[in-house]
Each structure stands twice: as C-alpha cells, then as structure tokens.
C-alpha cells in the first residue's frame, strides 16, 4: 500500500515529464536537489512511474525483529508480564529473558496489539522551586523509607533507601517491618562496603535523626557546668563521630529524588515479587542487590565533576561499633556494671577503669555487649555469683530413714519415763 508521500512523488514526476513543472520547481515541491529530480525522471522513463519509489520498498528490513521473537514478547506481555509498564517490561525482557529491544520498538509492537502501559494518572502537583543537584558523587545522599503493601498480602513493610543526589545512583536498599534506626544503620554499612562514607545525609525530621527542639530537655546551668551534653539520637551521634553531616529537608519535595524512586519501585517490586515467588522481607532483602544493579545501569547519570566526596572505607567491625546503641553505666566497687537486667564484668583486669568511672556500653545485633572506655573497646562477660553447694549426705535416703527409725526405737527403750516390761505384762 502506498502512503501519501510516495503518491506525491509519483504525481510530481509524472507532471514534470508532461512539462507542467520544470526541474527546479519539482525539486522545490519534493524537497530534493535538481540532480535527484533528473535521476528520478530517468527511472520513470525506463521503468515506469513506480520506479521512482524506494528500491527497498516491500522488502523485509535486515534489522527487522524475527517473528519468533515477536511471538515470545507478546506471549510474555499477555502472561507473566501482564500489567507491567513498557519500561519495566523492557528491562525484565533484557535482564531475565535475554531479549534486547528498544523502548520505541517494544511500545509500537504492544500498541498495535492494544496492550496499553498501566501508568496511573498523576494529580497536578504544586509548584516548588527546584534545587540544583550536587556536582560531586557522595557530596549529598538522600535517605528515606517508604511504607507500602510490598508483598500484596494486605500487610505493610518499610523499604529504606539511599540515593546519591549528583548521579541518581541507588546506593542501598533494605526492608524492615517498621522504620527504625537499625535499618538506617544497615544502609550505612552497605554504602561503606561499596563506596565509603558520604559527606552529607539529607533526611526528614523524624526522631531517628533529630529530636524535636520544642520537646527536648533544656540543659540547666549546673548540667552545662558539669559537662553534660544535650541528648541526641543514636544515629545522629554516630554520624557526628564519623564526620557525616545531617541536613534537615523541610518538605518531601526537597528530597524529590528519593520520593520519585518510591513511586517507581512501588509500581515494580510487587509485580516482580509475585512473578519470582518472593513472599517475605528476608527473601526480598536477598533480591534487592539485583534491583540496585539493574536500576543504576539504566537510570544513573555521571556526576558534573569527576571527583568523589566519599571518605575512605571504615573497617566493618569499627563502623558497626560506632553505629551500635551507646548507653552510659557506672562501674561499681566490685568492678561490675548492670545492663539490661544482667551484671557484667571485664574479661581481663587490664581495663584501667576504676569504681565510679562512667562507661559507655555498646550493643547491637552485629555487636555483642562491650565497653568503650578512653576510646578503646573492652570485652565483657556476664557476671554470675556462685550458688552455695548444699552438703551431700554419704547415706542414701532409704538408709538415712532406716537409721533414724532405729535410733528412735533405741531412744524409746532408754527413756526414763518408760515403765518396766513386767509391769506392762501385768497390765496387759
């Protein structure tokens, strides 16, 4: 079937051969050069007017998609990849089925089959002043968590994430039931293992990061003179110890990069979990590394400046000790301290702490209970008093009972109040 452009070309060349147009006018009408018009006229004179059409017309292009590939894609699109949007489907086809298609090719094919992309209609957003992205990789990392029904069972879980502001690169993801300080610490461990520690975290105002200035305890003059500092969240204390700055985002739009990430993952992960049979957080956490790799390969950008702001990697053991929970205890006169309903003492007597000294007790699921004193970690063990051992009888219970019975009989016979036997016989 001939399209409008091809029909126009034939008509103009025919009229040029009839003398209605000269070569310059035909060239202007068809947006061609005079030399090309002369070539088309020669083709029409020798091969007919249809010879002016392209020589590959009607032939299958050498880069055309094979029919078996089309069939496989349509079968997947109507089956296990049903309700996937076009971009998500394109990525899954390439990563898991080895079918590499451009987005335009896939969208044309699916639209011809009336398979529409399930992109929800978005509400008109309020206008916000955009913030310029950072220039250096690791200069600013956005942290957040998303509460959602990720497993499609009516319950909810929190997906914690970290994304770099300069490159849009996802640095870490982690599932927990609730949004907790421990989960954000897990993100820090993942980031440190892969890149090092960033210069700054961009976070919201949750108590995990900041205490409410209106509600927190104000120090008295006596407390300030005694050297007592204001209490801060454990995560904020650990960030300060490692040189990471915490910045407060005043609105969700201020950290829009991580908010947009949640919109994409909420549309993708539940479908992937159903397709792959992932039903709980433990299975999902093992799968998230593949999600991060796939996402970064397609959606991350190079930073404006090539230098990195990530600090050198911390030893994992040291970092987990810093980001563990820290509490203060006083060493007793018996060189023990109480913690979580138990008593502890030092493994070795080499710790220089004396009774009355303040000890920092650190603990987490990665870090057993230990003490930090004078910037050094000391191992401790649970202190248990020895129970007094009851004396063990050399005789068995039966032998002891028998002897006591015999002793009782002898005592009755020797009693001064017992009447003689001959009197007892007369009485009887």
**Annotated CATH architecture of the domain at 141-216 and 227-260:** 2-Layer Sandwich
Q: Could you say what the CATH topology of the domain at 141-216 and 227-260 is called? A: Nucleotidyltransferase, domain 5
> Largest beta sheet, briefly?
6 strands, antiparallel
Count of discrete alpha- or pi-helical segments spanning 4 or more residues: 14
Helix content: 25-40%
The CATH superfamily name of the domain at 141-216 and 227-260 is: Ribonuclease H-like superfamily/Ribonuclease H
Q: Which strand-content bin applies to the residues?
A: 5-15%
CATH class of the domain at 141-216 and 227-260: Alpha Beta
Radius of gyration: 41 Å
Low-confidence stretches: none
* Shape call: elongated
Structural class: alpha+beta
**First-to-last CA distance:** 141 Å
Quaternary assembly: single chain
Q: Mean pLDDT, nearest integer?
A: 83
Q: Which strand order do you get reading across the main beta sheet?
A: 6-9-10-11-8-7
SSE string, helix = H, strand = E? Answer: HHHHHHEEEHEHHEHHHEEEEEEHH
Got a strand count? 11
């Amino acid at each position: 079937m001939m399209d409008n452009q091809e029909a126009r070309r034939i008509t103009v060349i025919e009229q040029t051969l009839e003398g209605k147009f000269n070569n310059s006018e035909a060239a202007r009408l068809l947006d061609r050069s005079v030399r090309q018009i002369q070539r088309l006229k020669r083709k029409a004179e020798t091969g007919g007017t249809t010879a002016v059409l392209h020589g590959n017309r009607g032939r299958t292009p050498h880069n055309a998609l094979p029919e078996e590939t089309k069939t496989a894609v349509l079968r997947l699109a109507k089956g296990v990849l049903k309700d996937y949007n076009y971009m998500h489907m394109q990525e899954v086809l390439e990563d898991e089925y080895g079918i590499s298609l451009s987005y335009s090719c896939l969208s044309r094919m699916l639209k011809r089959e009336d398979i529409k992309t399930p992109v929800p209609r978005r509400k008109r957003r309020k206008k916000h002043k955009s913030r310029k992205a950072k220039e250096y990789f690791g200069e600013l990392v956005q942290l957040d968590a998303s509460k959602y029904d990720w497993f499609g069972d009516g319950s909810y879980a929190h997906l914690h994430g970290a994304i770099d502001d300069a490159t849009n690169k996802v640095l870490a993801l982690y599932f927990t039931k609730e949004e907790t300080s421990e989960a954000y610490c897990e993100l820090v461990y993942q980031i440190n293992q892969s890149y090092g520690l960033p210069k700054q975290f961009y976070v919201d105002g949750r108590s995990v990061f900041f205490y409410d200035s209106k509600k927190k305890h104000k120090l008295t003059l006596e407390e300030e003179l005694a050297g007592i500092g204001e209490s801060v969240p454990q995560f904020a204390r650990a960030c300060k110890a490692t040189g990471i700055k915490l910045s407060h985002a005043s609105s969700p739009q201020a950290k829009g990069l991580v908010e947009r990430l949640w919109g994409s993952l909420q549309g993708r992960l539940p479908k992937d979990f159903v397709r792959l049979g992932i039903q709980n957080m433990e299975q999902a956490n093992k799968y998230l590394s593949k999600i991060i790799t796939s996402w970064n390969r397609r959606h991350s950008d190079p930073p404006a400046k090539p230098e990195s702001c990530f600090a050198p990697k911390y030893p994992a053991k040291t970092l987990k000790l810093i980001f563990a929970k820290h509490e203060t205890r006083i060493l007793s006169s018996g060189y023990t301290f109480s913690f979580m309903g138990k008593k502890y003492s030092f493994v070795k007597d080499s710790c220089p702490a004396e009774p009355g000294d303040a000890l920092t007790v650190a603990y987490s699921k990665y870090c057993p209970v230990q003490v930090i004193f004078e910037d050094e970690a000391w191992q401790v063990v649970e202190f248990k008093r020895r129970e007094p051992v009851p004396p063990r009888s050399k005789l068995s219970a039966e032998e002891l009972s028998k002897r006591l019975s015999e002793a009782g009989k002898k005592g009755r016979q020797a009693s001064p109040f017992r009447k003689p036997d001959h009197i007892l016989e007369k009485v009887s």
